[in-house]
Specification:
Pfam families: GFO_IDH_MocA (PF01408), GFO_IDH_MocA_C (PF02894). Its EC number is 1.1.99.28. The protein is α/β, with parallel strands linked by helices. The chain folds into two domains: 126 residues, 3-Layer(aba) Sandwich (Rossmann fold), CATH 3.40.50.720; 176 residues, Dihydrodipicolinate Reductase, domain 2 (2-Layer Sandwich), CATH 3.30.360.10. The strands form two sheets. It has a nine-stranded mixed sheet with strand order 14-13-12-11-7-10-9-8-15. The protein has a six-stranded parallel sheet with strand order 3-2-1-4-5-6, with helices on both faces. Helix 1 runs parallel beside helix 5 and helix 6 runs antiparallel to helix 11. The chain is globular, with a radius of gyration of 21 Å. The protein starts with a helix and ends with a strand. The structure holds nicotinamide-adenine-dinucleotide (NAD). Nicotinamide-adenine-dinucleotide binds next to helix 3.
């Protein structure tokens, strides 16, 4: 049996088990009584530097439990965030979260290849799931995750924080509302210089190179700025295979997305050059955001009626991290789907697979609805 087949079997068995594991609405009923409790799974860089420090800025969410394979991290962050020993878990005893009524949801901040397994195990334990981007390493895994959460009656949200960032929200409103005229073209560029010796450069852990990690922001922005799904992609990859960083994953991949309305998005994803921005272009004007999807510092300029002006928004009461963390409890309480549900993560993975196919086979790839 191939590694891939074995992996699919494991994910399939976990997904089937999730159906029997909890009653629909159980986690929702728990959540209504008190602040919504998250268990953070994986105490790496993004979890400890961005997410955990931002619970203090939330209206509804609080950090109540930690999951890690490293006892020293559990001790250190447990002490820092006042998490009792009863609320600290290893990957081996992760299933015990089921018996902890303080935990409403898990936030999975692990390497990409572990997202599906931990989402399904969490659903099986009756918990809602916030899962980092990319949702998983294949569309098939995304489908298994969605099915598992559906059967368990738990919500699934993907950590697309830019959807909670005010400049990106304004860009969506202006682009879809044709503020500078009907959108003709979007350019979106995301990249950074990847440091060697990390899981991101190991395809088994990451599922791919720059596109899985940072280029997904270009793709996701093109989709949220248009509100449409691409119908065709064409991609070109440029990777120096003699660079030890790129033995198993791609460096740069440039891709063109065609949307049903005729809009085209010209996108860059890179692990060897620094970019973070997008521009929505009409016949006579544009909306520019650079940086666009950074943790802070978004800068917007708009060209309309022959005049270019900066657009400055007041600082939000809740930053994008806190607003994202609060969105899941808001949805649980209102009985709504998150604006960045599992379906949103799946839509990106479907396009990512088409982009890789296009680059590999050197041809346009059509995406059916
Ligand atoms: P990281 O390497 O800093 O953290 C990963 C954590 O997973 C570490 O604590 C590590 O110990 C743990 N882990 C468990 N099993 C592991 C294994 N077998 N191999 C390697 N690590 C293992 O990575 P990160 O930057 O925190 O990224 C984690 C996830 O968060 C990724 O999916 C990434 O795409 C996502 N992320 C999102 C954003 C964002 O802005 N939304 C930013 C950074 C990272």
């Amino acid at each position: 049996m191939s590694k891939g087949t074995h992996r699919r079997d494991v994910i399939g068995r976990l997904a089937a088990g999730a159906a029997l594991a909890c009653l629909p609405g159980m986690a929702g009923a728990q959540a209504r009584k008190r602040p919504f409790g998250y268990a953070v799974v994986g105490l790496g860089s993004y979890a400890t530097r961005q997410i955990m420090p931002n619970f203090k800025n939330c209206d509804h969410a609080r950090l109540v439990a930690l999951v890690s394979g490293t006892p020293e991290k559990l001790d250190r962050y447990g002490a820092e965030y006042n998490i009792p020993k009863t609320h600290r878990y290893s990957y081996a005893n992760f299933e015990r979260i089921r018996d902890n009524p303080d935990i409403d949801a898990v936030y999975i901040i692990l390497p990409n290849s572990m997202h599906a397994e931990y989402t399904i195990r969490a659903a099986r334990a009756g918990k809602h799931v916030m899962c980092e981007k990319p949702m998983a390493v294949s569309a098939a895994e995304c489908e298994a995750m969605i099915a598992a959460c559906k059967r368990a009656g738990t919500k699934l949200m993907i950590g697309y924080r830019s959807r909670f960032e005010p400049y990106n929200q304004l860009a969506i409103e202006l682009a879809r509302g044709a503020h500078v005229g009907r959108t003709r073209l979007i350019t979106a560029e995301h990249g950074f210089n990847a440091q060697p010796n990390q899981w991101r450069l190991d395809r088994r852990m990451s599922g791919g190179g720059s596109l899985m990690d940072i280029g997904i922001y270009s793709l996701n922005a093109a989709r949220y700025l248009t509100g449409e799904e691409p119908i065709e992609v064409s991609a070109v990859e440029a990777t120096d295979r003699s660079d030890p960083r790129f033995r198993t994953v791609e460096d740069r991949i440039s891709f063109l997305l065609r949307f049903p309305s005729g809009i085209e998005a010209n996108c860059v994803s890179s692990y060897s050059s620094g970019h973070n921005g997008y521009r929505v272009v009409s016949a006579d004007g544009w909306i520019d955001l650079e940086p666009a999807t950074s943790y802070e510092g978004q800068t917007m300029r708009i060209r309309k009626d022959g005049v270019t002006m900066p657009r400055v928004l007041p600082a939000p009461r809740r930053n994008q991290f806190a607003a994202q963390l609060d969105h899941l409890p808001e949805c649980v309480r209102a009985g709504k789907e998150p604006i960045v549900s599992g379906e949103e993560g799946l839509a990106d993975l479907r396009v990512i697979e088409a982009i890789y196919r296009s680059a590999r086979e050197r041809r346009h790839v059509s995406l059916s609805a």
